[in-house]
Model the fold of this input.
Amino acid sequence: MTTWGQVATRPPHSRGGEPVLDVSDLRMRYGTHDVLKGVSFTAAPGEVLALLGPNGAGKTTTIEILEGFRMRSAGGVRVLDTDPARGDEAWRSRLGIVLQSWRDHRKWGVRELLAHFGSYYTGFRRPWDTDELVATVGLTPHAHKRVGQLSGGQRRRLDVAIGIVGLPELLFLDEPTAGFDPEARREFHDLVHRLADESDTTILLTTHDLDEAEKLADRILILAGGTIIANGSADQLSREMSTDAEVRWTRDGQRYVHATTDATKYVRELFAQYDDEIEDLEVRRASLEDTYMALLRKFEGSAR
Done:
C-alpha cells in the first residue's frame, strides 16, 4: 500500500539544465511605494528553495508574480521558460500551488474532490491516480468523508493533495505544515524530499518555521527591504556571518564549553593536546534562526 511518503514517478523532463525559475531585477511598485526593488534568483530542476523574510518584505507579492496572478512593474521573469504574465492553461497545468487554505468545499467527498481536480489535467498531462494520491497524503481512511468532516490536520493534507494532483514540475508551498502534528510534519518533509529527488519537482516554499526551512531547503533566500539579502544553504549563510560555534567536551569528568569561529581548527588543536582524554565531544553551529536574525540585524543596521 502506498504511504504518505511515497510518490508516483514520471518521465524525465526534456528541458535539460534550463532553470525552472529565472528572476532578474524584479520590481513591484504600489503607488509611490516600492515593495520589490530588484529581486534576482534562479532555481534548478529538483531544487528546494525556502523564501524567508519578515512580514511585509514582499514574499507574497513575489510568489503571486511567479504564479502569474499579479503583474510586475519591471524586471525579467521566466517560469518554466515562460513569462508568467503570458502563461496559458497548458503552462499553468505544470504548476502546483498549496495555499494556506483553500476555499470551502465542505460538501464534497475527499476522493470525489481530488478526482474532480485531476480531471482538469487530463487534456494536458497525466494527473496523479486518485487512489494513489489519497494514500500518499494519508487520507485513505477518510476518502469517502465530506471535506467538512475532516480535522484541521486532515484538511491540510487535502490542501497538499490538491496542490500536487497534476504531478507539477514546479510546486509553490505557502506555510505547508500549518496544523500538522509532529508525525505528520515528518512524513510531509519526506514527501517533499521524494518529490524533489524522484520526480525532479522544483519547490519554492515560504514558512515562518525556520527549523522546517533548514530541514527542507537546498537553498535559503532571505527577502528584506525589497531585495534578496542572502542566498545560500543554511550552512553557507552561517559561515558567511562568521557566527561562533560552540565546542563542548568532557575531560577528567569535567565539562567544558568554548566558543570559536573555526570549530575544525579548535577541535584539531584540542585532540593534539589531550588526545583520548577527550570524551563526549559536541560541536554546535549557529542555527538558521540565529543566522537569519543576524542577517536581518546587519541589513537593518546598514539601511539606517
Summary: DSSP finds ten helices and twelve strands in the chain. Confidence is low (pLDDT under 50) at residues 1-16. Residues 237-303 form one domain.
